[in-house]
Amino acid sequence: MKKLTLMAMCLATTLFAAARAQQPAEAPKEEKHEYTVAKTPEAENDQLLDAIVAQYKGKAVFVDFWATWCGPCVNAMKVLGPLKPEIYAKGVVILYIAGENSPKEKWESMLPSIGGIHYYITKAQWGALCEKYGIKGIPAYLIFDKTGKQTYFKMGYPGNDAVMEELGKVW
């Protein structure tokens, strides 16, 4: 009986060691989302977006107007997420613009999961840009070509196919 118990323990130890050898040494790391909180350039309120986009001259720019409390905004970011590597690979800059109607602490806590370049603007700047670009609701999207010319505007998420089609015209 002792021999049988000893053999069972040896077998179990061998099987455990073999199973452990097949497992990776460490768990896979969580994907890291890079983000930047950019300094808002000095510009008249209605010229602010022009000044921001001008910083990325030579690159197409995809702009997302959003708010922390906007369910459709957050959902659209999740839907677009899988396409971001392809968008970045084509040299497109993704900018996110939120205003003071989003609590700053909540906004900051959300940035790591979103990635991209973020601007937090004042209520006056938000109002001026909404008036200039005809933004009457969020989410709202604009695309600028490599020269800084606006080529696209849409309120409400148009879907991944439409975004990729429009970006394909400017990259």
Task: Write up this protein.
With about 170 residues, the chain is of the alpha/beta class. Helices cover about 45% and strands about 20% of the residues. The protein has helices spanning about 1-20, 50-55, 70-80, 85-90, 105-115, 125-135, 160-170, and strands at about 35, 60-65, 95-100, 115-120, 140-145, 150-155. The protein has a 6-stranded mixed beta sheet with strand order 1-4-3-2-5-6. A hairpin with a 5-residue loop joins strand 5 (about 140-145) and strand 6 (about 150-155). The chain is globular. The termini are far apart.
Beta-strand content bin? 15-25%
Q: Can you summarize the main beta sheet?
A: 6 strands, mixed
Structural class: alpha/beta
What's the Cα radius of gyration? 24 Å
Please, what is the average pLDDT?
84
**Spatial shape:** globular
Can you tell me the residue ranges where pLDDT is under 50 for at least 5 consecutive residues?
1-33
Counting DSSP H or I runs of 4 or more residues, the number of helices is 7
Terminal Cα span: 75 Å
Q: Give the spatial strand order of the biggest sheet.
A: 1-4-3-2-5-6
Q: What letter string, H or E per element, gives the SSE order?
A: HEHEHHEHEHEEH
What is the number of beta strands? 6
Share of helical residues? 40-55%
Characteristics:
171 residues
Question: What is the secondary structure topology, with strand pairs?
Answer:
Elements: H1 2-22, E1 35-37, H2 48-54, E2 61-65, H3 71-80, H4 84-89, E3 93-99, H5 104-114, E4 116-121, H6 123-133, E5 140-144, E6 150-155, H7 160-168
Parallel strand pairs: 1-4, 2-3, 3-4
Antiparallel strand pairs: 2-5, 5-6
